[in-house]
Specification:
about 425 residues, alpha+beta, Rossmann fold, Dna Ligase, domain 1, D-amino Acid Aminotransferase, Chain A, domain 1, five-stranded parallel sheet, binds adenosine monophosphate, binds glycine, purine biosynthesis, ATP binding, phosphoribosylamine-glycine ligase activity, Phosphoribosylamine--glycine ligase, EC 6.3.4.13
């Protein structure tokens, strides 16, 4: 079977790499892919934008692609599943309606309220004047969220009124995030330990993945600005049986039930972003995709054939997913300046790497030369009997990767409670 992976990050590299291990997969096309994806066995890059559905359709037809695996949220929210609905090709990822759980924070908040899923209290505003009036009445900190997709930048945890007022002005009056900021949520600030829980959602039920922890802040000690994720470890030391039971009973089951009630046939990855206090989860967000860099850890842990898992999920035949008992870890290597501005087109040198897997993200190949092309450049991953061993292997190898202004955290694998 020929498969198309849509996306270009480390997550998509990891998915393509794992698909390449399946005996049933003949060719994997990655659109657009990155400087590492085409190095994997059976993998080919196609320089097509993730939202150019007609160009993807031409590729699907010319290469007899039977399955499309969608990495990022954008094409899902834009309706890639609906576009291919009657074409015969299977799409792993929800319809436009299901993807609203990530694509509209107001839709997802209403969904949680209707289905009694624990989450922060929130009010919705479509006029900046009313939002500003309301802000005069609340206690700080408070959380401000643009309704639509804003490339991961649409949330502010505001510490005081001035900052919150400025955000409303930028987003609702000056259209900082375009139409994504036409409506906003003002939400209760939750405290506790942030945790993500991922898996595959189908109308038949939810199939959890091994647990994982993402390190969001840029700097050691979990300090500095938030990023897309600077590292990952799996399994998560924060999970315990009581918390797992609470997440399943209070969040996962009501979500699956709510989707069925709304007649949304959801077949795809689902990521619950949670805030946990005293083993009680509250939902911060839904994502209809896997996390990055969590996927890079999880694909190393996955023992099942991923193609079988995805096809079984799509045909309601998935029973269970097998995971290694070992640990895995990944350290993100970024361009200095990320998540703000950073230099691109930096020459990359990679010397010998041993017992690690290097997943590319912001890299490209030009005339055979490997160059940086993004903020997060690589995730260097290892799987070993325990996290200490993973850590040692990764940090020994990382010195063999070199480019100007390369930055990475030195403390991935350390445990921070909140
Ligand atoms: P979201 O995209 O909704 O997950 O928000 C991005 C980040 O903002 C989350 O990962 C949290 O760190 C933070 N956040 C979102 N909602 C809240 C909340 N209600 N209370 C505290 N922090 C929040
Ligand atoms: N690593 C967090 C995310 O992918 O949303």
């Amino acid at each position: 079977m020929n498969v198309l992976v849509v996306g270009q990050g480390g997550r998509e590299h990891a998915l393509a790499w794992k698909l390449s291990k399946s005996k049933q997969v003949s060719k994997i096309f990655v659109a657009p892919g990155n400087g590492g994806t085409a190095n994997e066995a059976k993998c080919f890059n196609k320089s097509i934008n993730v939202n150019n559905f007609s160009a993807l359709e031409e590729l699907v037809n010319s290469e007899n692609i039977e399955l499309i695996v969608v990495g990022p949220e954008d094409p899902l929210v834009n309706g890639i599943n609906d576009y291919f609905k009657d074409s015969g090709v299977k799409v792993f990822g929800p319809t436009k309606e299901g993807a609203q759980l990530e694509g509209s924070k107001i839709f997802s908040k209403k969904f949680m309220f209707e289905n009694n899923i624990p989450t922060g209290a929130a009010n919705f505003f479509s006029e900046s004047k009313l939002a500003k009036n309301y802000l005069q009445t609340v206690e700080f900190p408070i959380v401000l969220k643009a309704d639509g997709l804003a490339a991961g930048k649409g949330v502010l945890v505001a510490k005081e009124l001035g900052e919150a007022m400025q955000w409303i002005e930028d987003v609702m009056e000056k259209n900082k995030f375009g139409d994504a900021g036409n409506e906003v949520l003002i939400e209760e600030c939750l405290f506790g330990t942030e945790l993500s829980y991922m898996g595959i959602m189908t109308p038949k039920g939810f199939y959890p993945f091994e647990t994982s922890v993402d390190y969001k802040p840029l700097l050691d000690g979990n300090s500095g600005p938030n990023t897309g994720g600077m590292g990952c470890m799996s399994p998560s030391p924060f999970m315990n049986s009581e918390l797992l039971k609470n997440i399943n009973e209070q969040v996962v089951e009501p979500t699956a039930h709510g989707l069925r009630k709304a007649k949304i046939d959801f077949y795809g990855f689902m990521y619950f972003g949670l805030m946990v206090k005293d083993n009680q989860p509250k939902v911060l967000e839904y994502n209809c995709r896997l996390g990055d860099p969590e996927t890079q850890c999880l694909m190393l842990q996955l023992e099942s054939d991923i193609l079988e898992v995805l096809l079984d999920a799509l045909s309601n035949n998935l029973e269970n997913i097998s995971w290694s008992k070992e640990s895995s870890m990944g350290v993100v290597i970024a361009s200095g300046g990320y998540p703000e501005s950073y230099k691109k087109d930096q020459h990359i040198e990679i010397l010998d790497l041993n017992e690690v897997k290097l997943f590319h993200a912001g890299t490209k190949k030009e005339n055979g030369e490997l160059l940086t092309s993004g903020g997060r450049v690589f995730s260097l991953n290892a799987k070993a009997p325990d996290l200490e061993a993973c850590k040692k292997t990764i940090y020994t190898n990382i010195k063999n990767i070199k480019f100007n202004n390369m930055v990475y955290r030195k403390d991935i694998g350390d445990i921070y409670e909140s």
